[in-house]
Design brief:
This protein is an alpha/beta fold. Helix content is 36%, strand content 25%. It contains 13 helices and 15 strands.
Length: 337
């Protein structure tokens, strides 16, 4: 078994801005597990908010290289457990490796990943398309550039309601809003009725992750459901979100990959919460991994590959929010020549 690294700089079609970050280029690391002709791919993007760089992901994976290249494991889950002691401080690196392992072992069995997981793709949710923070005119322009059935609108400005009002004038699409921790409990409770009138389905992570008292109020008083993101990073966070949020948005990179995400989904469902997976502006490698979770999800935000102009891979494709899987085993992702 060989562990190979493929770093890329993903060029964003538009400057992407959220409440605490803005960028035009998204560095990413594609990890490959190769054994002869058989190859599996996984991915994680860098993230300054969480202190993740391409270099420290490669360095972390290097500490587990002997285990990885020994090939002394028979499943992605077994490898996840073997390398966790070395990678537990870098979940992004573990995610890239775990995605690659799931891709590899499903290809080894000549099956698609969702088949390995015993899932069916007959009834799967549509993905939203994200509109990053910008001038209102540019946000409207971005929306018109790609007609879509569901938009997720990034908020956290001094004119959040006006943004949603102006966008609503230009589409009948369903809206979701994501404040990325930028609001207070009072703002969230006050905004919610107005947002509901404007066709917003739910509010994602309105308050800072440590504002438990505020979220207790919001959960009790908001007329719109609230979905956790920054408050639900790893498996141990799921239980603590009960009674504060109506659902959780799992990021594969933050939790350590598909192996951990599957456990989080199972626990969230057992607690009566909705489940969502979001992306971190990955290429088609990471996005294709997310796609295999669709039968387990209530909502999905997997538009990362649509936000970039130089995708180094091919994989799942999109048609007005609907996902089509390529006729390939594994996750379906493949690096371009």
């Amino acid at each position: 078994m060989q562990l190979l690294f493929h770093p890329f700089d993903l060029q964003l079609r538009h400057t992407f801005t959220i409440a605490h970050d803005s960028r035009d280029i998204q560095p990413t690391l594609i990890v490959e597990l190769r054994d002869g002709e058989l190859s599996g791919l996984g991915e994680a993007t860098s993230n300054p908010y969480y202190g993740i760089t391409i270099e420290n992901m490669i360095e972390s994976l290097g500490t587990a290289k002997a285990i990885i290249e020994s090939g002394a494991y028979n499943s992605a889950e077994e490898l996840w457990n073997l390398v966790y002691p070395a990678l537990k401080s870098n979940s992004f690196a573990q995610c890239a490796l775990d995605e690659a392992a799931h891709d590899f072992f499903s290809k080894k069995k000549n099956q698609r990943l969702y088949d390995i997981w015993g899932l069916h793709i007959d009834n799967i949710p549509l993905t939203n398309f994200t509109i990053g923070i910008d001038t209102i005119e540019k946000m409207v322009s971005k929306m018109k550039e790609l007609p879509w059935p569901i938009y997720k609108i990034k908020l956290g400005t001094n004119e959040d309601l006006r943004i949603v009002e102006e966008l609503r004038k230009n589409t009948n699409a369903l809206f979701r809003v994501d404040a990325n921790c930028a609001w207070t409990a009072e703002q969230t409770i006050a905004f919610a009725p107005e947002l509901k009138k404007l066709g917003v389905e739910f509010i994602e992570q309105p308050l800072a992750a440590d504002d438990i008292d505020g979220m207790t109020r919001v959960f009790a008083e908001s007329v719109l459901p609230v979905i956790a993101d920054e408050s639900c990073i790893v498996e141990s966070d799921v239980k603590s979100c009960q009674g504060l949020f109506h659902g959780i948005n799992i990021k594969l990179t933050k939790c350590g990959g598909p192996t951990a995400a599957k456990r989080m989904i199972t626990e969230a469902k057992s607690l009566g919460m909705k489940t969502m997976i979001g992306c971190m502006t990955e290429s088609s490698v990471g996005i294709s991994s997310i796609a295999h979770f669709l039968p387990l999800l209530d909502y999905v935000d997997m538009d990362g590959s649509l936000l970039i102009s130089n995708d180094p891979a091919s994989g799942v494709t999109f048609d007005y929010g609907r996902i089509t899987f390529p006729d390939r085993n594994g996750s379906g992702a493949m690096l371009k020549a």
